[in-house]
């Protein structure tokens, strides 16, 4: 006899920006801490390439086996992916022997909102 339970689906989180657009008002100390952590994680070229590979991958998620060709060793790739996860930019799920990464749902929207409208008309 099997005991199968249907789990409810979670609704996707609405994009909640971490901070106001840069030209809206000065950031608070807390907002600046959050934004700095995010941008610091993306400040390394290898991490930026990995983040871009995950964000642009078909289906919105990527197996580590598909994104590890960034010119560094596999342990270094794992280190950089951990840094992106620690900054709240990526989440991961283990499936068998592989780990799949995806950009946190609100991250791209939050980053876009932070930078939105910063270009001044000349």
From TrEMBL:
One Gene Ontology MF term: DNA-binding transcription factor activity
Domain HTH arsR-type as annotated: residue spans: 27-122
InterPro entries referenced in this protein's UniProt entry, alphabetically: ArsR-like_HTH (IPR011991), HTH_ArsR_DNA-bd_dom (IPR001845), HTH_MetalResp_TranReg (IPR051081), WH-like_DNA-bd_sf (IPR036388), WH_DNA-bd_sf (IPR036390)
Keywords noted in UniProt: DNA-binding, Transcription, Transcription regulation
Lineage top rank: taxon: Bacteria
A Pfam family hit: HTH_5
Protein name: Transcriptional regulator
Organism, as annotated: Streptomyces purpureus
Upper classification of the organism: Bacteria, Bacillati, Actinomycetota, Actinomycetes, Kitasatosporales
């Amino acid at each position: 006899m099997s005991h199968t339970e249907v789990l409810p689906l979670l609704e996707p989180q609405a994009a909640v920006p971490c901070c106001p657009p840069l030209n809206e008002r000065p950031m608070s100390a807390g907002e600046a801490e959050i934004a700095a952590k995010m941008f610091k994680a993306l400040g390394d070229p290898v991490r930026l390439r990995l983040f871009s590979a995950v964000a642009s991958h078909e289906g919105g998620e990527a197996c580590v086996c598909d994104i590890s060709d960034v010119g560094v060793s596999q342990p270094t790739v794992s280190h950089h992916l951990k840094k992106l996860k620690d900054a709240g930019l990526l989440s991961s799920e283990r499936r068998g022997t592989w780990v799949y990464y995806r950009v946190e749902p609100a991250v791209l929207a939050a980053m876009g909102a932070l930078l939105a409208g910063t270009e001044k008309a000349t």
